[in-house]
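To whoever is on call:

I kicked off a structure prediction for a single chain this morning and the downstream step that reads the tokens threw a length-mismatch warning. I double-checked the sequence; it's 294 residues and nothing unusual in it as far as I can see. Pasting both halves so you can look.
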Amino acid sequence: MILTAALQNTIETCAETRSWLANEMSKLLGQGPFLSEEQFASAIATRIRDNTELHSEGGYAPPPAGIAALFRLPINFHRLIFDTLRKEEYWPCVNQKLEMGSAGLVYASPIHRLSGAIGDFGMTIYRGNNAAVQAHLSRCLNVLERACEYAEVGMEFRELHELAQHLFEEAGLHNARTVTWTDKVGTNLGHTIPWSYEAPSQTEMQLISSGTLSDLRSLISNKRINVNRIERFRIPENIAFTLEARLESASDPTMPNTFYQLIATFQNGVRRVCANFNEIFAALGMESYIRSKF
């Protein structure tokens, strides 16, 4: 498919929105520890509302406003072992704080007003010095980035899913908890960014430009194609899709459930991977043991 102006706009807007969000999170997290989940989520919600190019709330909701924050000290990091962030018990709360020694998950899902493009960003952070935890986080990021590097034009999503599962197994990891409400076939690795590989229909464009946020959220959710074990969708020359398995150690249940969401984009067949993690690693002092190659 030819890279039209509409597709290029969606792909580039997705990458730019994600980069903006990562920068805002970096500035907030760099201010120091002891933020509560609620304080973090509220601050990011304010930044999204103040950005006039974005809808006032994100696409993945609940949690409230499409923003998640889970912080937990190392008591098996059990707050990070969740099945879905949609459950109220995992919504941002005031009594869980990003204290020294704690690990956390941060995530938000902004929607661009004009194009409907989503620029989701999420990652696991750590404020501790446990060498085993540090090695686990680095291993999880590395194996996901390797999976991204295998993605190529013409590959079926089921092939990419199978290949990634082999990489996880070789690294002593699994993603058995990575399920979504819209994917009924089991674990998946991610999903397409709607309108990055096909232009919106006239009806969809009308909803993007003038529909309610609730209707837009439903449209985005229903348009996504999941990277799972049976999906035969082939990667086209122009597309953006996420790879975001939540990885756990197969041998050590004390390690945190770890989440690094990547977005792979192709424009005219040229692959680019959006990570945007390194600025946050630097803000939190994590760069000595973990670094994204993208």
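Update from on-call: the warning came from a stale cache, not from the record. Cleared it. Sanity check on the structure: The two ends are 26 Å apart (CA to CA).
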